[in-house]
Write a structure and sequence with these properties.
By secondary structure, the chain is an alpha+beta fold. Among the domains are: 201 residues, Collagenase (Catalytic Domain); 67 residues, YefM-like fold (3-Layer(aba) Sandwich); 115 residues, Jelly Rolls (Sandwich), CATH 2.60.120; 59 residues. The protein is 14% helix and 25% strand. The protein is built from eleven helices and 42 strands. The longest helix is centred in the N-terminal third of the chain and has 16 residues. It is elongated, with a radius of gyration of 33 Å. The two termini are 35 Å apart. It is found in: Secreted. InterPro entries: ADAM_Cys-rich (IPR006586), ADAMTS/ADAMTS-like (IPR013273), ADAMTS_ADAMTS-like (IPR050439), ADAMTS_CR_2 (IPR041645), ADAMTS_CR_3 (IPR045371), ADAMTS_spacer1 (IPR010294), MetalloPept_cat_dom_sf (IPR024079), Peptidase_M12B (IPR001590). GO terms for molecular function: metal ion binding; metalloendopeptidase activity. This is A disintegrin and metalloproteinase with thrombospondin motifs 7-like.
Length: 734
């Protein structure tokens, strides 16, 4: 493929993604073109007719050559391989494949890629199709996506399982798939606009680049366009294959094909050259009514949306820009006592589902690095049961912050998304901290025996904090006012970290460090509680306790100031990250209050410092074995990918492929002999480059032309084959 081919290919593919049927405003930009001549000698890349192995090799190679800095003009979001190998699948037994890609992996570092066989003019459809898979689209077939492969006007959808030159738009299913990708932040990496574009492309119609004779020659080698009336040229491409015979596939010529003096084909019609129907840019319609709340109590989310239908974009007009869905909090009233949290309900849904062949009882487990993943724990272990929790699930226990589309969104005490409103220690939203009395002490008495009473916590107390100042073998305990019924750590048993109900309100028990306890109770307490220290060892490391009590009148003048609290978590687990400490408005007795009480002029800038500067460790990453190439009476070989990777600095991101020399230990085997029960078949050997005298025979076998004087059959040019269905479902990232 030469430079000009890439030049025009981009224009063809960009036209599909710019079309309003995609349901999104997308612009295709080429940032780098790499011409490969000796891939196996010069780089760790293997390109062959084997589609699965080529895809695996290319995806890893493109990840290694990508520039991590998104502001670089050489950073790419999606990589495509163009090859003239006749790529095959199913252990090389089926060579009707034109492309292969992962599904829904646009922002997955080593899976944001696809391979494409260059068969000529239809390459633009193939590339758009494979990129569609990466963008989350399945094939358009009633039994796969639920959408037909054909549009109402008789043209084909981009994600049809077959390649057809008369392909114009995306199906409603593809629109939904791509929109879902963006709404769930699986396409977030595509949102940045390139700062610099090294390749400038003009917008060209394919027929204006490749004339009718060229198109005929690609379909029927040696043929040219048959003479016919200009008004018929745009309906189907008729090619002269013999002196007295014309043949067609029943397909129209490419848009832009000359159909008369100063005229060209556009959408099956012969119109003035250089013109197209006037583009109509889309406009947003009215917002819909708010939908049903995700939960019945405790604070969930509902959303409303709008359509780009005022007017509907037409004739390549621009799709609407802006948000199409907005959210708000709803049903914020407290839940009745004993109600399961929304996260707990989602964990319980897996109680009836087999996990590694067994049934378990699941309860929530909170993973601080991934607050919107559904992690659950049973009596033996914890596991991530779903990639993301349902919209409206709280990010953390005891927090208002809420997960929407897999992202933790801040929620203020006013129950407004992304609000900075905070509740003061008295429990007043945006309060000044003066409406209550603050009790704060440190228990440092000599160690007692067994369960030693520290203090009675009064009814009505809020924001109760009990903190062990240093690790110890002793524990804290909480009982009811009669000191007989223990709500935490009774009977000399230390309970698990988690949520507990105490005095009609929520309590969170945790260990910030091993053997160092922390208890918070939100309040207000509906009854008195008693705080104990259980001495298993004769030492008192100190226990801080703090809460607020209602006060009848203000007895002092509050004083406010800006102060830095603790540094936030490090941005990286290794390799050097940043920690930030942000200023908060504090009242000297009440603690944190709303920022409006502090002078904004005096507000300092956030502080930062380097953290976790230790290098990220490396390890051998071993993929699954491939299927065995052998059969029942013949041994074969199976292979797997073995790569040296460096752990990602940020939790949840992809590991980085590095040189094998950076890993320690013996490299695991990547190939081994194997046996298979698959019957041995006699397969016809197929050359990648057929002699010219065999070319016509192969075309008859795969393209099935129909003669002009018979009814046009509209056969597909080349099939993608059904193996894609099973493989892509397996690869699909739900």
């Amino acid at each position: 493929m030469c430079w000009n081919d890439c030049y025009y290919l981009r224009s063809f593919v960009a036209d599909y993604y710019r079309d309003s049927s995609s349901g999104n405003e997308m612009e295709l930009t080429v940032v780098r073109i790499i011409y490969l001549e000796k891939e196996e000698l010069e780089m760790d890349l293997s390109i062959s007719p084997n589609a699965e192995l080529t895809l695996d090799s290319f995806c890893k190679w493109q990840a290694s050559v990508n520039v991590d800095d998104i502001s670089s003009p050489y950073h790419h979001d999606i990589a495509i391989l163009l090859t003239r190998y006749d790529i095959c699948s199913d252990n090389m037994s089926n060579c009707g494949l034109l492309g292969l890609a992962h599904v829904g992996t646009a922002c997955t570092k080593d899976q944001n890629c696809g391979i494409n066989e260059d068969t000529g003019l239809n390459l633009g459809v193939v590339v758009a199709h494979e990129m569609g898979h990466v963008m989350g689209c399945s094939h358009d077939a009633e039994d796969i996506s639920g959408c037909s492969s054909k549009a109402e006007d008789g043209s084909y959808h981009v994600m049809a399982p077959y390649v057809h030159s008369h392909t114009n738009i995306w199906s409603p299913c593809s629109k939904k798939f791509m929109t879902t990708l963006f709404e769930n932040d699986l396409g977030e990496c595509l949102n940045d606009r390139p700062q610099e574009t090294l390749y400038k492309f003009a917008e060209m119609l394919p027929g204006s680049v490749y004339d009718a004779d060229y198109q005929c020659n690609m379909i029927f080698p040696g043929s040219t366009l048959c003479h016919q009336e200009p008004e018929n040229i745009c309906k189907r491409l008729l090619c002269k294959t013999k002196p007295d015979s014309c043949t067609t596939l029943g397909e129209p010529p490419a848009d832009g094909t000359k159909c008369g003096e100063n005229k060209w084909c556009y959408n099956l019609k012969c119109i003035e050259e250089g013109t197209r129907p006037d583009a109509i840019n889309g406009g947003w319609g009215e917002w819909s009514d708010w939908g049903e709340c995700s939960v019945s109590c405790g604070g969930g989310v509902s959303y409303c949306k709008r359509q780009c239908n005022n007017p509907v974009p037409k004739h390549k007009g621009r799709y609407c820009i802006g948000i199409k869905k907005k959210f708000r909090m709803c049903n914020t009233h407290p839940c009745p006592s004993g109600t399961k949290s929304f996260r707990a309900q989602q964990c319980s849904e897996h109680d009836s589902k087999l996990f590694n062949g067994k049934l378990y009882t699941w309860i929530p487990y909170y993973e601080s690095d991934d607050p919107c993943g559904l992690y659950c724990i049973n009596e033996h272990f914890f596991s991530k049961l779903e990639p993301r929790v349902k919209d409206g699930t709280k990010c953390r226990s005891g927090s208002r912050d809420t997960c929407i589309g897999g992202v933790c969104r801040k929620v203020g005490c006013d129950w407004v998304l992304d609000s900075d409103a905070v509740e003061d220690i008295c429990g007043v939203c945006k309060g000044d901290g003066t409406q209550c009395k603050i009790v704060e002490e440190v228990y440092k008495d000599p160690p007692g025996n067994d369960y030693t009473k520290v203090i009675m916590i009064p009814k009505g107390a809020r924001n109760v904090l009990i903190e062990e100042l240093d690790p110890s073998e002793n524990t804290i305990a909480i009982s009811s006012a009669d000191e007989k019924h223990f709500l935490l750590n009774g009977k000399h048993i230390e309970q698990l970290d988690g949520d507990y109900k105490m005095a009609g309100t929520q309590a969170i028990y945790s260990h910030p460090e091993p053997e160092k306890e922390l208890l918070t109770i939100s309040g207000p307490l509906q009854e008195e509680l008693v705080f104990f220290v259980v001495f298993f060892k004769k030492e008192n490391v100190g226990y801080k306790y703090k809460w607020s009590e209602p006060r009848s009148q203000i007895s002092y003048l509050p004083r406010y100031h800006w102060e830095f609290t603790e540094f936030e978590s490090c941005s990286s687990r290794c390799g050097g990250g940043i920690q930030t400490a942000r200023p908060m408005c504090l009242e000297e007795k009440a603690g944190r209050v709303d920022e409006s009480y502090c002078d904004p002029v005096d507000k300092p800038l956030p502080k930062t410092r380097i953290c976790n500067s230790n290098p990220c460790p490396t390890r051998w990453k071993v993929d699954r074995w491939s299927s065995c190439s052998g059969c029942k009476f013949r041994s074969g070989v199976r292979s797997r990918s073995v790569t040296c990777v460096r752990d990602a600095a940020i939790a949840g991101e992809d590991d980085v492929v590095v040189e094998d020399s950076e890993c320690t230990g013996v490299k695991p085997a990547s190939k081994e002999l194997c046996n298979s029960l698959r019957p041995c078949l006699k397969l016809r050997k197929r050359s990648d480059e057929l002699p010219e005298d065999q070319t016509e025979e192969i075309y008859r076998q795969t393209k099935m032309p129909s003669h002009f004087d018979s009814k046009p059959m509209g056969f597909y040019l080349v099939t993608f084959k059904d193996f894609n269905r099973k493989l892509l479902q397996k690869m699909r990232k739900e």
